[in-house]
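[Automated response] Your request has been received and processed.

Submitted sequence:
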Amino acid sequence: MTQLTRPSARKTAEAHDPAGTEHGISGKGLKTGQLGLLAVVVLGISSVAPAYSLTSSLGPAVNAVGLQLPAIFIVAFIPMILVAFAYRELNADSPDSGTTFTWATKAFGPFIGWMGGWGLLAANIIVLSNLAGVAVDFFYLFLAQVFGNPDLADLTSNKALNIATCLAFVALAVWVSYRGLHATKLVQYAMVGFQVVVLGVFIVMALTHASSGDTPTAIAFSWDWFDPTKISSFEQFAAGMSLAVFVYWGWDVCLTVNEETKGGKGTAGKAGTTTAIAVLGLYVAVIVATMMVAGVGGDGIGLNNPDNQSNIFAALASPVMGPLAILMSLAVLAGTASSLQSTMASPARSLLAMGHYGALPQKFSTVSKRFGSPGFATIMAGAISGGFYAIMKVVSENVLNDTILALGLMICFYYGMTAFACAWYFRHSVFSSVRNFFMRLLFPVIGGVVLTLVFIQTAVDSWSPSFGSGSEIFGVGLVFIIGVGILVLGAVVMVIMARTRPGFFRGETLRKDTPALVVPE
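Generated structure:
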């Protein structure tokens, strides 16, 4: 295996390990040089899944912050881009498919690193189940539109059929992902391009309807929508932030495939920040157009209508796009399907890294000889996400809303940990230059603090069953049980792994260290 640390750091590693691989970053057998910058950006946008993210989150976000919807999305972008800088710094020093798991281990040690990896895995498993659920809804809506039979759209309410269809989507995503990033790339170009074009058509048609006066719910544009100080309480602000953070999440898949990119370790870092900025522009345009045509009321196609909130585009497509509404159904279906498949890359490669460094059973480190992909880890990621969705569909009144809110907790947890890991790992070089002060200390710490505050506030609020769909277990809100409960479960699994696989937790396979005082290329 090839040592990937910088030459200056390699000398330190080799002082403990003559082979140069025992304590440091090492290759895992993944197929290298598969993706250039454009392909990684497309993969990142696919994982973010703009159409899916917006249709799932706009309703709950409007319920939290009302007219300040554009403001909360822009504010939520700030910690995202600051954390993206932290990812880029860490990736330049230690490119590894384990990302948060690997970097938090090198910064804070194996126990915190393991929990960071668990948080990343949990977030991905939750969103994979959610993606499949949205894909099911739009699949049957699409069939209803094609055959002119509205009853087909109601098939999604049949729990058994819904779960079976969801598992079929997950199995298809696993099959494509197992075949490696080349197959993934070919699928993504077509689906992401189509998704963005349809959202562009929706924006134009929504603005046209809003300005023509033929939509009773339409409201006039106002710059006040961009003022976050008009959000009436911190609780509302935190709830809106948790949801808005969710819609940006997914760009870090660009870093997860860093061992498989072309152009060196800088490609993944550039792709991550490029993806985040591109998505921000698209979101603001869609949000403003949607608010202008639908308004934030509770009647008709209003964004606060409870019948619309779980799936905004399903409610708005026909009134806004008329006969072209089927394109929106296809766009969301394509977006969720492509994201389901591209997002699979992140937990699979995180599981691979955890198995490779001995934090999980060795079977997870298996790489397909034919496709150069993390075969066993991909299958396990799909199986766990499918099982999670099936359980949630049975116990939750609104599985999509509750899992999105819980996902916000997971995102804040592991993104925040990565940001703090950057500041601590580079602590000896943060004052060596102005650049290092901002990129390695100030920006990551600000991003980490904001996400930590949102995590704490959301966890406190979600204890109440009224936070989310109203589902509860023994009087405790289901969102809290999913979010915090999964972290507690992770701590339990970590203790078991520490007893059965002690090498990683003793620092024998991946050590806690600090880099040399140099600026990455």
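Summary generated for your ticket: Confidence is low (pLDDT under 50) at residues 1-23, 516-521. The chain has 19 helices and two strands.
If you did not submit this request, please reply to this message.
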